[in-house]
Structure formats: structure tokens, C-alpha cells
Amino acid sequence: MNQAPAAKSDLAVRAASAVVMLAVAGGALWLGGWWFDTLVVLVALTCFGELARLVMKATPSLAWRVIGIAAGAVYIGMAARALVMLEREMIVGILALVIATDIGAYFSGRTIGGPKIAPAISPSKTWAGLGGGMLAAALVTVALFYSNVGARAFDELRVMTGVAFVLGALLAVVAQAGDFLESWLKRRAGVKDSSALIPGHGGVFDRVDGLLPVAIVAAELWYRGHP
């Protein structure tokens, strides 16, 4: 009898936390400069602390703990550097793509269901969810491309639209890979969330697991295309 009010209360907490997170991130991004850099550093340090905690719980081996923590430092450090170095428009695009992937995967997975991708790692992830996330990310990437494109020949636009679509879909797979990596680590550690820092949302690592690899790959692609 008490399940409905509890679920409603949890939804309210999650919504309030999401509004606060969006306000902080959006405000820092709008202000730019050291405001955004400071936020990135704080998030990266908190995320690293949560990752190190998971690694410590996941294995009793000192060698694997050292390797895991060192690899995590490089992983999170590369993502933080990418976010600090990229232009504001690119960061907005990355955030939009990751959010679109999550939303598309959630709704298509819930609506269509079907076979799981890796139930031993993440029981809720389905192939339909992955496809929905890829489609949503691809459409968002195309929309972002057209919002920034200047006057181009029709043939060039058609080719670039296809490139943007494929790129968005591939980056959605990268985001999902980051999600699976954290899910695998949490499963090994025997915990549900990376921490309880954010009410209704778990930890910082839970919120940025897909953002980390996308930021790294997007930055690499950007700098290769703009030497």
C-alpha cells in the first residue's frame, strides 16, 4: 500500500536533484573560463574517488587495485582535459548527444524490450535500447550539424548529413560502452551505485559514465580534423 507514495517521493527527489545538476552545469558552462574549469576539476576528482572506491571493493589483489586506480586516473583525466580544452559549442553538443543516448535507450528499451545485451553486467540494457539510443544520438547530431552549417552546396550537405548521422550513432555506442564499464565495475564491487552523493541519482560516476568516453573520442576526432 505504501509503494506508490514512496515511488512518487523518489521521483520528486530525482527531479529536484536533476534540476540542481542542470542549473549548476549550465551556469558554469555559460560563465565559462575558470568557473567551468573548476566544475570540471571538482567533478573529475569526485568521480575518481568513487572509481577508486569501486576498484578497492572489486578486487582484493593489490596489483589489480594499483592497475585499476592508475587506469581510472588516466581515463578520467583524459576526459576532464578534453572538456576543459574544447570549445563551448562542442561541449554542448557532447552533452546533448549523451543525454539523447540515455533518453532514447531508456524509452526504446522500456517500450520494445527484447533480448538483453549483457545481463550478467547490466540486466536492464537491451539491444532495442541500444538501437534507440543510437537513433536519438544520430538525430541530435544531425540537428546540431544543421544548426551550425553555413551556405553549402546540396551534394555536400547530403554527404555531411550522412556523416553526422553515422558519427552520432557511433558515439552513442561509445557512451553505452562507458555505461557498461561502470556497471561491470559496480557488479564486481557488489554495489548498486558508485556513491550516495546525489539524492535519487547515486554518485557522480553514475551520472558521467557515458560522458567520459564520448568526451575523449570527440576531442580526438575534433583535433584530428582541426590540426
TrEMBL record:
Major subcellular site: membrane
Protein's UniProt keywords contain Ion transport: no
EC top class named in words: transferase
Transferase among keywords: yes
Listed EC numbers: 2.7.7.41
Keyword list, A-Z: Cell membrane, Lipid biosynthesis, Lipid metabolism, Membrane, Nucleotidyltransferase, Phospholipid biosynthesis, Phospholipid metabolism, Transferase, Transmembrane, Transmembrane helix
InterPro entries found in the cross-reference section: PC_trans (IPR000374)
Membrane topology, as annotated: Multi-pass membrane protein
GO terms assigned for molecular function: nucleotidyltransferase activity
PROSITE patterns found in the cross-reference section: CDS
Pathway the protein contributes to: Phospholipid metabolism; CDP-diacylglycerol biosynthesis; CDP-diacylglycerol from sn-glycerol 3-phosphate: step 3/3; Lipid metabolism
Source domain of life: Bacteria
Catalytic activity: a 1,2-diacyl-sn-glycero-3-phosphate + CTP + H(+) = a CDP-1,2-diacyl-sn-glycerol + diphosphate
Transmembrane segments: 12-32, 62-84, 90-107, 127-147, 159-178
Subcellular location: Cell membrane
Family assignment from sequence similarity: Belongs to the CDS family.
Official protein name in the record: Phosphatidate cytidylyltransferase
Organism field: Alteraurantiacibacter palmitatis
